[in-house]
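EI: anyone free to look at a 133-residue chain?
SC: sure, send it
EI:
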Amino acid sequence: MVFAWPVWRPLVLILLAVTAPAAADDSFPFGTTLMLDAAPMRGSKRIPMLEIAENGAASIDLWCASATAKADISGDSITIALWNSFNVQCAPERQARDAELLATLAGITKWRRKGEVIEFSGATPLRFRLMTN
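SC: here you go
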């Protein structure tokens, strides 16, 4: 018994839909380094990075200095409370950008993942990209 392609076509499409890969992971990427979606400041290659462990311990590399914080993530809500900031001697412009970024991180309230991008929202939105190398 031979069946024509038009008869099999719906079955093939159903089979492809059932075996297609699952939707992209939309969970928070604990333990993964997130890089701020920004260009480096003039005269430097450094870009701020954030890493949050499952227990909420966060390490933040800023434009100049570094900091530690506690992150509380529940569903799509997030709060970040600064623990320590490690001052490093650098240009006033970089110190000002560090303070600005820390204040922005302290003001975020929501997060959302779109593939390799993590978007934080609050008074000032931030975008980070997962480091995949």
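EI: The chain is about 25% helix and 35% strand.
SC: 👍
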